[in-house]
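Lab notes, practical 5.
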Amino acid sequence: MLRTLAKIRKARSGMAAVEFALILPVMLALVFGSIEVTNLLICKTDVTNTASTAADLIAQETQISNTDMNNVFSALSALVFPFPSSNTQVIITSIIDDGHGGGKVAWSDGYHAIPHTVGAPMTVPTGLITTGGSVILSEVTYPYTATSSYLVHIPFTMQNSFYTHPRRVPQIQRVP
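Output from the prediction step:
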């Protein structure tokens, strides 16, 4: 019996397979976790780029029509590729000086989102709106869902907003 136990103790033929079986789940979790974190960071960057691009596209104009706004929203939905754009919510708002150091909504449009009410007061950083001037505010919200739901089950909602001044006129007009 002692000889049999000694043979078992010296046998090493299946040890690599056992070690591999123990380490494989941890390694797979690390690999797929790294992929998910990378996708999450890429999506966050896309949301930030979408917010800044939305404000920049509008700020280049002197007036915006419904066709122009639809074209901007179509272009913005392409910026979140390869992630689904159907969940992207974008609100673009022109905020004008209210005469008391604050701002109010001149016009607002939403893509898969409810725009701000015209005339409603808006809080903006101090000194951002000059007397008689305006700013364009873009707000982007994106609910990110992990591609491998085996590891991460929690959806992340990413939000970003961006202010910019109109480039060619003090206030951009919204026309039908």
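Observations recorded by the TA: DSSP finds three helices and seven strands in the chain. The CA atoms of residues 4 and 10 lie 10 Å apart.
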